[in-house]
Prior knowledge:
It is a single chain. 70% of the residues lie in helices and 0% in strands. By secondary structure, it is mainly alpha-helical. It has two domains: 3-79, Rna Polymerase Sigma Factor, Chain: A; 95-171, Winged helix-like DNA-binding domain superfamily/Winged helix DNA-binding domain (Arc Repressor Mutant, subunit A), CATH 1.10.10. Helix 2 packs parallel to helix 4 (58-79) and helix 3 (32-48) packs across helix 4 (58-79). The longest helix has 22 residues, at 58-79. The chain is globular and about 55 Å long. The chain starts with a helix and ends with a helix.
Amino acid sequence: MDPARKLALFEQMIIPHLNAAYNLSRWLTRNNEDAEEMAQQSFLKAFRSFETFQGNDQNEGLAWLLTIVRNTCYTWLRKKGERTLTEFDEQLHTADDLTPDGESILLNRDALNSLRGCVEALPAEFREAIVLRELEELSYKEISAIVHVPVGTVMSRLARARKRLQECMGATR
């Protein structure tokens, strides 16, 4: 591909999604500086491999870019030794286990007094699902393509994330 054409197409299809890339990386890394670094690395990777992009519009560009952002962030988190995904265990992830006792509510009230704190507390796979659906307004199908899981898994993660957010917000009142 001609370098001038590559740059023009990249600017048209990918650059408009800078905020979305930063937003997802911010929620995954939980840090402004790290998010900036991950977004920048993701754009460099996207530009270098732009010849492989086979989409025709900005929505496909967004999904392609956010896949790169997600992979870049998770690779970086794993290198830091952080767990990125949790196994779902029905015994561990029941509503009874999520209900804090009175002392916990008082101890955590200041730390969890906002929606942002509650979103930050979600496991990574729930946090990314909420960010991609509610903040970036992507479809279930687009999220499925980005995170490489079936649409049903996306729906399940969103349902569990929303339930946890409701519980968290209820505990902070």
